[in-house]
């Protein structure tokens, strides 16, 4: 089966590479020439475990191609995936310009009945709009006799585990327009996702709006869970409770579940912050007060200030001090720093007159670009030891496995003072930690 994928971001690229490895013939289309050139050479523009190896294998086997040219990508496609970005606009709403442009472009080259599958996270009603855009374009070409179906198939993979998650989803959601031929589309989906059927992954067929909302509500719910546990962590600090035990106890209740209850410095990344803002915007446009999501977003923002206040309380003044930050990516196993809590804390500390030293296994290059205007106040280091050298205080902001193995005594010995704020509770169970540092985890003593 020939598959075309428009957009080579986290979703499109992972989908393309993995489906080519599953035996499909894949053409990935993107309008970023540098990216396409890199991908043709077998280099992934993002760091994601297993991705580059699989990409190289598929290129070698001739199962995947990359192009800027819609025509060559679309003309032989049996199915077209739309996986372009929907980044937030200033008011929090989703920027649908890329989706609109991609829909118009692909319609120029459709020559047979087609199934378009939207992977991008889009507000309710967008897939119907995509269909209208495509039909309008086909009309201009006198080809509106073609039968085009646009379905919504949101992706739930996580960064850092993208390849694994793509192959092992909890469920597959397929939203179909009530006017389309459901049985025909179901058969197509079973062919495309045969691999998942064999693994008995549930496939849920529903209407377009439900599929669209299911992605937002899943991300919003997980965000609520994180802000909730972080709020309990702050209360734990004030009352002598231990948030890790609280999480464990809550997690044993199967109605709650034990995942996404790790207290920390708040959620970041390109998804939760974007999708929670988008849902607030959709709520506003539909006269629905989304007070739970609203509080979640607000608390997630406020948390950085609460944590900085805690640092100030312990250190006295922070002005003129040197603070070392371990971890820049919004979570481990990715070089993605979008909406990373570490970056937000760095900016706030610099504005308070702090000198910053940073180290991250993968997030350095992107941070150098992001913080170029702060370059006088920030030093990028080769490793955790150089980062800690002559510093007053260490803050662990991303739970990279590498940090777990660092030599704590050596870190302490190179530091000027020995304050250690562990915002991911990586060392909270380490019996030695307090021998070396004034140690402050999240939500417990
Ligand atoms: C998230 C969802 O988990 C995916 O299901 C979804 O497909 C994806 O967004 C998307 O919309 O594309 P992702 O942003 O890659 O995936 O990362 P997560 O692992 O969900 O983590 C998000 C943030 O929450 C990170 O900053 C992480 O550190 C934080 N987090 C997570 C916590 O603070 N505590 C936890 O217990 C879990």
Descriptive notes:
The protein has 445 residues and is of the alpha/beta class. It has 19 helices and 14 strands. A 6-stranded parallel sheet has the order 3-2-1-4-5-6, with helices on both faces. It has a 6-stranded parallel sheet with strand order 11-10-9-12-13-14. α5 packs parallel to α6. The mean pLDDT is 97. The structure holds uridine-5'-diphosphate-glucuronic acid. Uridine-5'-diphosphate-glucuronic acid (UGA) binds at residues 121, 155-159, 219, 222, 226, 260-262, 264, 267-269, 271-272, 330-331.
Biggest sheet overview? 6 strands, parallel
The value of Rg in angstroms is 24 Å
- What is the oligomeric state here? single chain
Query: Which structural class is indicated by helix and strand composition?
Result: alpha/beta
Order of strands in the sheet with the most strands?
3-2-1-4-5-6
Low-pLDDT residue spans: none
Which features would summarize this protein structure in a list?
445 residues, alpha/beta, 6-stranded parallel sheet, 19 helices, 14 strands, 45% helix, 14% strand, elongated, binds uridine-5'-diphosphate-glucuronic acid
């Amino acid at each position: 089966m020939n598959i075309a994928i428009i957009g080579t971001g986290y979703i499109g690229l992972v989908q393309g590479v993995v489906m080519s490895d599953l035996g499909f013939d894949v053409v990935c289309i993107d309008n970023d020439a540098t990216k396409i050139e890199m991908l043709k050479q077998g280099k992934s523009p993002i760091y994601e475990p297993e991705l580059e190896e699989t990409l190289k294998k598929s290129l070698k086997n001739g199962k995947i191609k990359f192009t800027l040219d819609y025509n060559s990508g679309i003309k032989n496609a049996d199915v077209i995936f739309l996986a372009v970005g929907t980044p937030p606009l200033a008011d929090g709403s989703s920027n649908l310009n890329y989706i609109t442009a991609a829909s118009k472009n692909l319609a120029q080259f459709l020559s047979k009945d087609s199934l378009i599958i939207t992977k991008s996270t889009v507000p309710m009603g967008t897939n119907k709009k995509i269909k209208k855009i495509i039909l309008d374009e086909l009309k201009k070409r006198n080809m509106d006799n073609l039968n085009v179906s646009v379905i919504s198939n949101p992706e739930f993979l996580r960064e850092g585990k993208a390849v694994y998650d793509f192959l092992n989803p909890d469920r597959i959601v397929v939203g179909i327009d009530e006017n389309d031929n459901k049985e025909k589309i179901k058969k197509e989906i079973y062919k495309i996702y045969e691999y998942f059927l064999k693994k008995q992954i549930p496939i849920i067929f529903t209407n377009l709006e439900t599929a669209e909302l299911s992605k937002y509500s899943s991300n919003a719910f997980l965000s609520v869970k994180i802000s909730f546990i972080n709020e309990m962590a702050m209360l734990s600090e004030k009352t002598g409770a231990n948030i890790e035990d609280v999480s464990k106890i809550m997690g044993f209740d199967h109605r709650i579940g034990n995942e996404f209850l790790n207290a920390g410095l708040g959620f970041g990344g390109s998804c939760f912050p974007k999708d929670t803002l988008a849902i607030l915007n959709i709520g506003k446009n539909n006269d629905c007060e989304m007070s739970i999501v609203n509080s979640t977003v607000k608390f997630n923002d406020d948390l950085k200030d609460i944590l900085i206040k805690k640092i100030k309380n312990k250190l006295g003044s922070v002005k003129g001090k040197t603070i070392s930050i371990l971890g820049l990516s919004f979570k481990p196993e990715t070089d993605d720093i979008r909406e990373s809590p570490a970056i937000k804390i760095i900016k706030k500390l610099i504005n308070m007159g702090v000198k910053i030293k940073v180290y991250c296994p993968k997030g350095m290059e992107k941070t150098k670009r992001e913080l170029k205007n702060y370059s006088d106040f920030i030093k990028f280091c080769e490793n955790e030891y150089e980062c800690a050298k002559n510093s007053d205080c260490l803050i662990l902001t991303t739970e990279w496995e590498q940090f777990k193995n660092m030599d704590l005594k050596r870190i302490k010995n190179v530091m000027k003072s020995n304050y250690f704020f562990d915002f991911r509770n990586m060392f909270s169970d380490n019996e030695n930690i307090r021998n070396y540092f004034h140690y402050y985890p999240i939500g417990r003593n």
